């Protein structure tokens, strides 16, 4: 039986966003109002941040602060677009993987592989979700803590002179020194943070789940290949006839996954370089201020975001290459079968496995080398910003 950890975290967050990713028959977009409401919470906030950036073009500190908010909003809108445009394709891909996993989980050894992989995936996805929730919560709470500190700790007599502070840099057509106006602006900020958090967690953890379960199918194919020699010639031929279609189906699903996520990965990695640049600059500029805690948490969340894609892409590449090793480690020389019956299919499978099965974003391959390259590029941008300031 398929593990109950499959899509456990993702299904909750997709339902909050208005989607049912288990809906293999029928429309998976069950509550469009939720989705549209989340999109509008980000779209309505984006002009306020753009106005803040335009207003502070000459101030590098303020400008980079505004750019942090703008970049995360734009990336969230891209993920909204991916979900809406490809939700049917993603649901079909999930259903194909689920059916294969359900079929293979009837065998105890394969069920253990599936259980282990999904347990690790849910741990990584949960850690990733907590990282982003911490960044969002710190962004929303930090202005209140700063206002409390300045009003009630430093100068209790200056309660009427407190300056309103908001989670994200933005400009409003009203004066936020009034209590009602401030509450409206604050709720506006929190709604935007929630609108960014939902698609980010949904899309990124879904990518993590899909890649991990494809890796599980690769591992099952490896295990089968290492033990494909049966008691009789017919058993051996039957085992090979079952293994190779499983491997080919997994490769096809990897290609489908790559086709769905390729535009997003391209945008993700481009934006991440700029994002890390402005965040690292903000961390270096606020080392002695409480804001450094928020920018440090934000930097960790962006690093975890790009590392998640690079790590999962590296896993898919590695597990595919291990299939060739599994063929080599098997007892193929003991089969006694003809070249055309066993030798040729195994050789062709080894040649295919030695080619990359990669997850890429047109110009970027999702692997650990790309992650290091993005971090190095961001550090060089930070040096440029520091020279300008």
TrEMBL record:
Q: How does it sit in the membrane?
A: Multi-pass membrane protein
Which keywords, in A-to-Z order, does the entry hold? Answer: Cell membrane, Membrane, Olfaction, Receptor, Sensory transduction, Transducer, Transmembrane, Transmembrane helix
- Give the highest taxon in the source lineage: Eukaryota
Key word Transmembrane helix present: yes
Cite the GO molecular-function annotations of the record: odorant binding; olfactory receptor activity
**Statement: the UniProt record of this protein carries the keyword Transmembrane helix:** yes
Q: Name one GO biological process term.
A: signal transduction
Query: Where does it reside?
Result: Cell membrane
A single cellular component GO annotation? plasma membrane
- Record-stated family: Belongs to the insect chemoreceptor superfamily. Heteromeric odorant receptor channel (TC 1.A.69) family.
**In its UniProt entry, what is this protein called?**
Odorant receptor
Name the species this protein comes from.
Answer: Drosophila albomicans (Fruit fly)
């Amino acid at each position: 039986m398929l593990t109950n950890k499959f899509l456990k975290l993702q299904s909750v967050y997709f339902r909050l966003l208005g989607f049912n990713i288990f809906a293999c028959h029928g429309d998976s977009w069950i509550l469009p109002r939720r989705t549209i409401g989340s999109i509008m919470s980000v779209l309505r906030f984006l002009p306020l941040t753009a106005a803040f950036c335009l207003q502070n073009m000459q101030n590098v500190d303020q400008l980079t602060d505004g750019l942090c908010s703008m970049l995360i909003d734009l990336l969230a809108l891209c993920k909204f677009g991916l979900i809406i445009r490809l939700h049917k394709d993603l649901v079909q891909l999930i259903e194909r993987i689920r059916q294969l996993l359900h079929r293979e989980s009837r065998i105890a050894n394969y069920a253990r592989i599936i259980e282990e992989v999904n347990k690790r995936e849910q741990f990584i996805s949960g850690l990733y979700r907590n990282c982003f929730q911490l960044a969002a919560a710190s962004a929303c709470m930090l202005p209140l803590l700063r206002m409390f500190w300045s009003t009630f700790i430093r100068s209790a007599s200056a309660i009427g002179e407190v300056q309103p502070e908001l989670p994200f840099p933005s400009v409003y057509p009203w004066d936020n020194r009034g209590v009602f106006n401030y509450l409206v602006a604050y709720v506006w900020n929190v709604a935007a943070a929630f609108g960014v958090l939902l698609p980010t967690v949904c899309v990124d953890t879904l990518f993590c789940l899909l890649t991990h379960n494809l890796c599980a199918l690769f591992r099952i194919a490896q295990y089968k290949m290492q033990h494909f020699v049966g008691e009789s010639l017919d058993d051996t031929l039957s085992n090979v006839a079952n293994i190779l279609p499983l491997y080919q189906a997994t490769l096809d699903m990897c290609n489908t996954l790559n086709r769905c996520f390729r535009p997003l990965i391209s945008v993700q990695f481009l934006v991440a370089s700029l994002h890390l640049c402005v965040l690292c600059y903000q961390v270096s500029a606020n080392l002695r201020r409480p804001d450094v805690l928020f920018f440090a948490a934000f930097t960790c969340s962006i690093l975890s975001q790009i590392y998640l894609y690079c790590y999962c892409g590296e896993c898919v590449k590695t597990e595919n290459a291990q299939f060739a090793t599994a063929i080599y480690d098997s007892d193929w020389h003991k089969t006694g079968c003809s070249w055309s019956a066993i030798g040729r299919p195994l050789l062709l499978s080894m040649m295919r496995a030695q080619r990359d099965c990669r997850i890429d974003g047109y110009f970027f391959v999702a692997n650990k080398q790309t992650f290091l390259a993005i971090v190095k590029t961001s550090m060089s941008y930070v040096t440029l910003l520091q020279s300008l300031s």
